[in-house]
Amino acid sequence: MSASAQGPRRGGGIRRGEARAGWLFVTPAVGLVVVFLVIPIVLAFWVSFSDWNGFQSPLNPRVNFVGLENYAAITVDPGLDQQNFGTSVRNNLWYVVFVVPLQTIIALLLAVQVNRAVLRGRGFFRTAFYFPSVTSTVAIVIVFQFLFTASGAVNAVLAFFGISGPNWLNDPNGIFHNIAAGVGITSPPPALEAAGPLGVTWWDWLAGPSVAMSSLIVLAIFTTSGTFMLLFLAALQSIGAEIDEAALMDGSGPIRKFFSITLPMLRPTLFTVLTLGLIGSWQVFDQIYVLGGATAGGTISTPAFLAYNTSFDELKWGQGAAIAFILFVFIILLTLLQRWILKEREPGRRRRISREPDAAAGSVGADPADRALPSGAGTHEGSRS
Amino acid sequence: MLIAASGDAESTAVQEALDAWGAETGNTVELILANDLVQQLGQGFAGNEPPDLFYMPWDQFQTYAGQGFLEPYAEDLANADEFLPALREQFTYDDQFYCAPKDFSTLGLQIDTDAWAAAGLTDADIPTDWDGLTAAAQKLTTPETVGLSFGREYARLGVFMNQAGGELVDDDTVTADSPENVAGLEYAQSLIDAGALKFPQDLEAGWAGEAFGLGKAAMVIEGPWINGALRNDFPDRKYISVELPAGAGGQSTFAFSNCWGIPAGSPTLDVTTDLVEYLTSDEQQLAFAEGFGVIPSTESGSAAYAEQFPENAAFVAGVDYAASPVAFAGAAAAITDFNSQLEADGLTDPAGVLGGLQTNLQAALDEANG
């Protein structure tokens, strides 16, 4: 290895100049990454520590370094900026708490259904479920706006059952507050009245997603389930028919088979889906932008939207960049978490593979996760590229 | 030149004016229609390539002027003294008249004449004060139609606070929680209690104009833009626009206006000021008025307009006592929060929502004043 690596440097033979050629070939890609990723990120990092107001280049001499002022304004200094940031984090947190598990479960169920050999018109269903994912979010939001207006289709259907629906996209009431009001609690108990983190009271942290945000949660599940269904489907199809047969021979019913065999074999894909979902839902922007962001009593604003709004409308570019950076760091941490969880599985896999001959000798499919893991991991890599 | 046109009528009219000016002076102007004006302006300024001339929205004006984005050219215009004082004041920052008002709108009271007649009301009943408004709104309220509707936001409710004699900012002090402002909101709440006022959201309408067009509200408070909207969507609705009734503190309305912004240090300053003079001349403004229904921003222009379009005379009359909505740098966030509070909590506790506004607005004002 080391000899061949040093080969070109010694300047002899057929591999001469290979390293230089290699650099030449990757230059366009590196150039693109530097121009469109590295420079903007470094510049945004600088802006988040500066008082740049959006006039001329952020590197012009009138721009001053203000230290952590922008970060302090949204995290520790009491005031409207902090409160807006806190509210947007609250909104987004509830959004994530609902969207990620629901979209994963629904995507998995859909994938299992369209993977069944007996299902007629599988192709049709696969396309139908995937369709919302290839449609632009903006188009879907506009359709949802019509469906969810006070006199829209959703409320018309509810009215048919004698239910008077809310004004979905404008209703700022948190659903947990609504439930609490249902049992007679309309004002915060003294314990929750105190200000919690980021200038938002504990009572408001616990409000749950507003009715308006719930509509967006439905929308997100509707649009992204199809994509994740596709990931699950690819993983499901790599599970060999012989494993199904073996499970059948061992006498497991469909439910037992799903939980004891299919689900463990889908683990790597499950991790991918959960992490992608987590990252995607922390970055939600399109829907909010189309709906105007400030509607529904500020309960649909998210950090991503707030960063945009602070920068463009209030010309506080430093503060906007600071919000974007907090979000960026948060998402990086989530990505590292995903890496860590996936890495954690590798020693286990090697250990199990070494055991495999015994298991195979014992009974076929007794521990199906053994063989599925490598193939599952392969699918996972494929789906990411 | 970057504009955000309300529709084809506006872009066509502006393009025609530019062509005419170009033919006269030999200059060429490229007209760009913005999808999202504020975003595109921000991008232009950040990239150091701002448009030579653009629509400057009133709510962003002070922020832009305060950050030194704008060239204070308006004082040097040949027709600088002809603009209406209220508009001149709106585009003055730090005692400098920055940019020429393009046109303006004020709020008026629209009355559905069919509903009016059906309720047995006559011309003598047209409300001139709050009592008259309450009486008319109550008479006009039927199971299908509410007497009065307008957006639940500062840009409408603020009018009532001003009519009660209140104001949000008095020099360097914020007076949002003054008794007058509370009285303004309490009056609106009294209309709600009487069942005579409902907000568009409660009428399943996107805005008051839609509720009016649908016949769900017999009176609304909107500006001249309602004319175009009703003509397009509800051509059968018959209505008149009158001046807003007076409150305890006299008459008041809001004036909204955009101005012709020129970026600071613009290399084309001479040419663009010439163009602004051309675009704000009385003939040209009246041509715009015919083209897309805006009201000229000059004294003589608006007077001529009131004669030519008597149905809109009430909007012109309003400019005499119109106030500018609060729009100093940083105020927007406080106002947005106030609107959110109104949406969440309603008007039942006027002192409470105004207290929050007081705190936020004072913080913003302190920051704006450094």
Topology, please?
The complex is a heterodimer of chains A (385) and B (370).
Chain A: H1 2-10, H2 18-47, H3 69-75, H4 80-115, H5 122-134, H6 137-148, H7 153-160, H8 175-182, H9 190-193, H10 202-205, H11 211-237, H12 241-249, H13 254-265, H14 267-282, H15 286-291, H16 303-312, H17 317-362, H18 369-384
Helix pairs in contact in A: 2-17, 3-17, 4-5, 4-11, 4-14, 5-11, 6-11, 11-14, 14-17, 14-18, 16-17, 17-18
Chain B: E1 2-3, H1 8-25, E2 32-33, H2 37-46, E3 54-57, H3 58-66, H4 85-90, E4 92-93, E5 96-97, E6 100-101, E7 105-106, E8 108-112, H5 113-118, H6 130-140, E9 146-149, H7 154-163, E10 169-170, E11 173-174, H8 179-193, H9 208-213, E12 217-222, H10 225-233, E13 239-242, E14 253-256, E15 258-261, H11 269-279, H12 282-292, H13 299-308, H14 313-318, E16 322-323, H15 331-345, H16 350-368
Parallel strand pairs in B: 1-2, 9-12, 14-16
Antiparallel strand pairs in B: 3-15, 4-5, 6-15, 7-14, 8-12, 8-13, 10-11
Helix pairs in contact in B: 1-12, 7-8, 12-13, 15-16
Structure description:
The complex is a heterodimer of chains A (385) and B (370). Chain A is mostly helical and 385 residues long. Chain A has helices at residues 2-10, 18-47, 69-75, 80-115, 122-134, 137-148, 153-160, 175-182, 190-193, 202-205, 211-237, 241-249, 254-265, 267-282, 286-291, 303-312, 317-362, 369-384. Chain A has a domain at 90-174 and 209-298 and 324-384: MetI-like (MetI-like fold). The radius of gyration of chain A is 26 Å and the shape is globular. In chain B, helix 12 (282-292) crosses helix 13. Chain B has 370 residues and is an alpha+beta fold. Chain B is built from 16 helices and 16 strands. Chain B has helices at residues 8-25, 37-46, 58-66, 85-90, 113-118, 130-140, 154-163, 179-193, 208-213, 225-233, 269-279, 282-292, 299-308, 313-318, 331-345, 350-368, and strands at 2-3, 32-33, 54-57, 92-93, 96-97, 100-101, 105-106, 108-112, 146-149, 169-170, 173-174, 217-222, 239-242, 253-256, 258-261, 322-323. The interface between A and B is medium-sized, with 28 and 32 residues.
